[in-house]
Amino acid sequence: MNNVNEGSQFESRLPDDGRYWDDLAARIVDSAEPILRQHGQRQAWWHPLAKWSPAIGIGAAAAAILILVAGPPKVAGGNQVSFEQLISPQEPVAQAVVSGAPASDISAMLLVESGGER
Amino acid sequence: MHVDNVSDGELVVWARRGDGEAFGALVRRYLRPALAVAWEFAPSRDGAEDLVQDAFHRALRALPSFDESRPFRPWFFTILRNLGRNAAEREARWSTGPVSEGLRADGADPEEEAHRADVRDRIRRGLDLLPPMQRACFRLCDMEGFDGVEVAEMLDLSAATVRVHRHRARAALRDALRDLNDTEEEEEEK
């Protein structure tokens, strides 16, 4: 029987010449020069920062903790700004709603309607 | 820098920083299997070289978003295969390739050489008739000498599937040669 076996009729169609592979590799690398340069430039500006990234990270975390511990800012006159004022939008109606006199609770309204008796 | 013993992951990190030597090392490491795979999609060696070059450039462009803890090889071959498929679709056909380039012609005896030429021709025609994946698995394993596991990774198949494709390709080629065998036996009987 004729062979369809290893190596008897077949050999690689890929070139054996080492220089061919060197030339092809050089062609691919040379033509990639603009992409490599682009990567190099991108690297250039953030690389110095990346070297300090642990220190920058620790500093940022410490600053965040300090802000939280220090609490809300105080008014120059010594009066503490209320929490409601801090979270309310900076416009008069919203301020009035949030920091105005509290609304009557429902039990008080029921007592008024029934003449104050249970 | 001695790049031969450096892992793919390290070369990827250096190449994405614009290191041409690291990129060159990656290219040299995968050039041969890449050309073998590309040739399955391209009608000529020149076309295959262009595909390989395009695949390496695309991989290099995409390196900044590539996770270097993942293996480079399957990622690269996925890029190459996708490019190859697109190119083949553009060509509107799969390459049958000049298979005879891969068949030996070293017989000294003219009669023996004529016989071999006949065998080569039948194998070439047999290969042309094979489904693309069977042909690719047979060529890459039996003609280019790549390991079955390696071919599985190059073509994104399981090793078992590569074995099945090779087995079917061999069976088909055996059938293509059977007629030749029968003719020879008849001549010997006479």
Automatic annotation (TrEMBL), chain A:
Name of the protein this chain belongs to: Uncharacterized protein
Automatic annotation (TrEMBL), chain B:
Segments of skewed composition (Basic and acidic residues): 103-117
Keyword 4Fe-4S recorded: no
Matching InterPro entries: RNA_pol_sigma-70-like, RNA_pol_sigma-70_dom, RNA_pol_sigma70_r2, RNA_pol_sigma70_r4_t2, RNA_pol_sigma_r2, RNA_pol_sigma_r3/r4-like, WH-like_DNA-bd_sf
Keywords, in A-Z order: Sigma factor, Transcription, Transcription regulation
Record SUPFAM superfamilies: Sigma2 domain of RNA polymerase sigma factors, Sigma3 and sigma4 domains of RNA polymerase sigma factors
Pfam families: Sigma70_r2, Sigma70_r4_2
Annotated RNA polymerase sigma-70 region domain residues: 26-93
Domain RNA polymerase sigma factor 70 region 4 type intervals: 121-173
Keyword Transcription regulation: yes
GO process terms (BP): DNA-templated transcription initiation
Family according to the record: Belongs to the sigma-70 factor family. ECF subfamily.
Listed name of the protein: Sigma-70 family RNA polymerase sigma factor
